[in-house]
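Before a colleague's protein record goes any further, I have to sign it off. What it holds is a sequence and that sequence's fold in C-alpha cell form. My question to you is simply how this chain folds and whether the C-alpha cells agree. Thanks in advance; the entry in question is below:
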Amino acid sequence: MSGNFVDYVKICCRSGKGGAGSAHLLRNKLTPKGGPDGGDGGRGGHILLRGNRNVWTLLALKYRKHVLAGDGVNGSSNHKFGADGEDIILEVPLGTVARDAETGEVEFEITKHDEERVLLSGGRGGLGNSHFKSSTNQTPRYAQPGEPGQESWKILELKTLADVGLVGFPNAGKSTLLSVITAAKPKIANYAFTTLVPNLGIVSYRDGRSFVMADIPGIIEDAHQGKGLGFRFLRHIERNATLLFMIPCDTESIRKEYDILLNELQQYNEELMHKPRVLAITKSDMLDEELKGMLQSELPQDLPTLFISSVAQQGLQELKDLLWTTISEYKAIDQAREEDHFQGWGEEE
C-alpha cells in the first residue's frame, strides 16, 4: 500500500502553441479578385486538472514527468478555422493543490468531483487576414502568427480531505480505532511508525449518515522540523474539519503529550489552532472508574474528552456522537462565514 500512495509529484508541463492565421486571397474563375478569405488558427491545447472522487493518490503521475498538449492547426482559405490543439486532462484526487515549482506560489486547489481548472493555458490562434480588411486596405496580405505555448514545472500536492483527522504519537491506537469503526484495514502492529501513509475510512452514523476519518502517520516531537516522518504528512491535517487527539491512558503524562502534539501543529501551521479539537484517552479498558477520576485533574480543560477502548468497544458510540456534533457545528460556521463573505463582496460591487 505504501508504495502505491503518492501525495507529491513534480511534472514538466508544456501547453500547445496556437495555429497561425491564413493570409489567403480568394481566386477562382468566377471571382478573380475576391479579396481576403483567410481563416483563424486553432487554439493550442490546455493542460487541465479534473477532480475525481474515485482517485485517492497521485500515483498515475509519478512516472509521467512530461505532459505535452497538442498544437493548434493553422487556418486555411475560405474562412476555415484551424482545429484546436488536443487538451490534456489529468485526473487527480480531491484535495490536490497545484503550485508553481519555481516560485512555490499556490495557484489553486481541486476540492469537488468533476471540477476542472486550467493548469497551463494553450497559446491563442492567430487571426486570418479577413480580420484586417478595411476600406483603405482591401487586400491585406498578412495574418497573425499563433501564440507560443507555455512551458513550466508544476508541483501537485495531495492534502487529504476528511471530516476527522486522527492526531497522536506513534502507537497511540489510531489505526486500531479506524479498523474498528470503519471498513478500512490499516496495518496494525506493536511498534512505532506502523502507519506510513494516511488511511481513509468512512464511519457509519445514525440514520444512514456518515463521515470520513483519516489516520495520519504518527507525529513525534520536532516533526515540524522534519524529524520522524517529518512534515511530509502534517499537510494532510490542514483539510480536516475536526482534529481527534488520541493519547493512551498508560502514557507518562497525558497533559505533556497533548501539549507536545498541539505545539507541533502550531509550529507547522498557526491556522490549525482554529480547528475544533476532541481528546480521546485510548486503551481505557485498563482503567476502572477510580483511576479515571484520578486522571481527570491531568486532562486539558479546554476541550471535550472521552475515555475509549477500540479493542473492548467502549465509548465508541459516544465518540461518534461527539464527533458528528463537532463536525456539524464546524461546517455550519464555515458555511455562514462563506455566505457572509460573498454577501459582503456583492455589496462592495
Notes: The chain has a mean pLDDT of 83. The first strand starts at residue 8 and ends at 14. The two ends are 50 Å apart (CA to CA).
